[in-house]
Structure formats: structure tokens, C-alpha cells
Write a structure and sequence with these properties.
- This protein starts with 14 loop residues before the first helix and ends with a strand.
- Helices cover 6% and strands 39% of the residues.
- The longest helix is centred in the first third of the chain and has 10 residues.
- The strands form 5 sheets. It has an 8-stranded mixed sheet, with no helix packed on it. Strands 4-20-14-18 form a 4-stranded antiparallel sheet, with no helix packed on it.
- By secondary structure, the chain is mainly β.
């Protein structure tokens, strides 16, 4: 557990933000190679090519998606007051608006005492469409204590969905029997089935043990920016608007937005996002030291997505180095 190793943060910012210079130094010179027992191991870049085989471990290590194995890179208000002046080569990129969307943040838990297991997935529907399908992975020691079953400790979920769909949101637990079970106040749809995107039609049966709630709901602006494959060589991302941005929250992620009515971004659980708040003191530009974020080094797609809550919409992104 990340809370048992050192002190990951205090008074708000986590250590990757508070000690951004140390984080940048490590990410410049070391490569993540495996995650085991919640600890991420990194190897100096010049040793990666001759890295020996990983020894046998009692718990099989995670060796993929390591850039997204830790918490989200949350800058909070820090970027508004940090002196981050661009230097060196720079690249200006247009940010293309995809319009306004509704963002829902849902959280809850589900567990099956009969099988001593959490559902393999939580499926979220809005209207007649599935807009999210994620595993339960959020730690819920309170549920483990309530059910007196330590295997319920990871029965939680915390999902943020950006969607153009309209209607009530419902959560379903995918059980070991291959059917969906309504969680909380979710209902059985009139057809009795939920059609999975590019997959089977799943029957909705008995109510699941658990709880589901909408933690927040707001309107956000969704935009897309095309970045070069060597984007990680740039350490500073400056977000720009045609006028003072005002009060806003920016979330940058590589999660693809499917084409069609259900446009979704899954965050929270997957920890793929870099976020920063914008305050009026920032004016029309906010510079964020993305190079010190592990996620920035893990993005491999040519397109990144910007989810903005509040303020004047961002229209430009400039990548550059940053003066020490």
C-alpha cells in the first residue's frame, strides 16, 4: 500500500509534485521495469539493454502500463505560482474542440459473499448505452471489515465518465455467472438485457450487494490535441486561451474517445490523467511541468484529450523545455 512506504504527501500535493525536480531527474535517467507489492522499480537507462532476467517473486510482478501504476499526477493550484519559464526548442500545437459534454463521477462498491470475490467488472449505462466498463480495484477496507472478509478489500470503484449521452446513470456488477446485477438503486432495463459495445448482450438478473452513488455531475469542455511521438522530451506544457482563462480545472489524458454517441473518458481508476487547477492569476496561459509526471512518459498515442471544467476553453498547447 502506497501509504505504508515513506510519506507520499502532506498538506495536499503528493511527492511527485512537491519534489518535481527530483521526479524530473529520475524520469530523465531511469526506466520503470516492474511493479511488485505496490513498489515501482526503475533501472538506469544505460543498463536497460543488458537487464538480467527478473528473479522469481512470490507475487508475479506487473511489467506493463507501469507509467500508469501510480496515483494521478495532480498539480492542484501549484502551477499558478511556480516559476516555469519556457526554454530551448518549442512546439506549438492547436487544441481542437470536440464540444461540451456531461461528466459524471460515480463511486461505490460491490461484492459477492457467496463466491468471496468482487465482480470482474462494473458496467455503467446512461440511457440505452454502456459508457464505462472497469474492474473493481479501489481499496475499501471498510467493506472488508463490514463483511468480515478481507477479500472484499478491493471491492470499490471510482469512475469519471465524460459523455454526450442523456438519461439516468445505472451501475451493474458482472458476476461469475456471466450476468449483470444492478448495484444500489440501479434497475433492470425494460428489455432485461444490456448490450455491451462490440460484445454480447448480457442479461440483467438479481440485485447485487453493494452501493452506487453519483458523487458529482457537471458540464465540461472536451478537446483533442495531436502530439509528436517524442513528446516526452519536452518538459513543459503551456496551455493557452484567447482570453484570461479564469477559474478552471484541466485534465490531460491519452484515453481514446470512441467515435459515436457514447464518448467516454475513464479516469480515476486507471490513473492516466495529469490535472491542474487554473486560477485568475494565471491570465491566459498556464504552464505545467508535465515532464515530472510518470504518466507523461507513458503516453504512446498521437492524440491526447483535454477535459476542461470551467473557464475560457483552451485553444493552444505549447511544448518546450523549462528553465531551471
Amino acid at each position: 500500500d502506497e501509504g505504508l512506504v515513506g510519506l507520499p504527501g502532506w498538506d495536499g500535493p503528493r511527492n511527485n509534485v512537491r519534489h518535481f525536480e527530483v521526479a524530473q531527474y529520475l524520469l530523465d535517467g531511469w526506466t520503470p521495469i516492474l511493479l511488485t507489492q505496490t513498489v515501482l522499480f526503475m533501472l538506469r537507462n544505460d543498463l536497460v539493454a543488458t537487464m538480467p532476467a527478473v528473479p522469481h517473486l512470490s507475487t508475479p510482478p506487473q511489467t506493463t502500463d507501469l507509467a500508469f501504476s501510480g496515483p494521478s499526477c495532480r498539480w492542484g493550484d501549484v502551477a499558478n505560482f511556480l516559476d516555469s519559464r519556457p526554454t530551448g526548442q518549442s512546439l506549438s500545437l492547436p487544441v481542437v474542440s470536440l464540444g461540451n459534454r456531461t461528466r459524471l463521477e460515480l463511486r461505490g462498491w460491490s461484492y459477492d459473499p457467496a463466491t468471496h470475490s468482487a465482480p470482474s467488472k462494473i458496467v455503467i449505462t446512461i440511457g440505452d448505452s454502456v459508457v464505462a466498463s472497469v474492474p473493481t480495484s479501489v481499496r475499501r477496507p471498510d467493506i472488508a471489515a463490514l463483511l468480515r472478509d478481507r477479500r472484499a478489500a478491493t471491492s470499490g470503484y471510482d469512475i469519471s465518465v465524460v459523455t454526450s449521452n442523456r438519461g439516468a446513470a445505472h451501475a451493474y456488477a458482472l458476476g461469475s455467472d456471466g450476468t449483470l446485477h444492478p448495484v444500489g438503486h440501479s434497475y433492470v432495463p425494460p428489455t432485461g438485457y444490456v448490450q455491451m459495445p462490440h460484445g454480447p448482450r448480457l442479461r440483467v438478473t438479481s440485485q447485487a450487494i453493494g452501493s452506487n452513488e453519483i458523487a458529482a455531475s457537471d458540464v465540461v469542455h472536451l478537446a483533442k490535441v495531436s502530439v509528436p511521438l517524442d513528446h516526452a522530451s519536452f518538459k513543459l506544457a503551456t496551455f493557452s486561451a484567447p482570453a484570461p482563462i479564469g477559474v478552471a480545472n484541466l485534465e490531460l489524458t491519452d484515453t481514446a474517445v470512441p467515435v459515436g454517441d457514447a464518448r467516454t473518458l475513464l479516469m480515476g481508476n486507471v490513473r492516466r490523467e495529469i490535472t491542474a487547477n487554473v486560477l485568475p492569476v494565471a491570465g491566459s496561459d498556464l504552464a505545467v511541468r508535465v515532464g515530472s509526471c510518470l504518466q507523461w512518459h507513458g503516453y504512446t498515442t498521437k492524440s491526447l484529450y483535454l477535459v476542461q471544467s470551467g473557464g475560457v476553453p483552451i485553444t493552444g498547447l505549447r511544448l518546450s523545455g523549462v528553465r531551471d
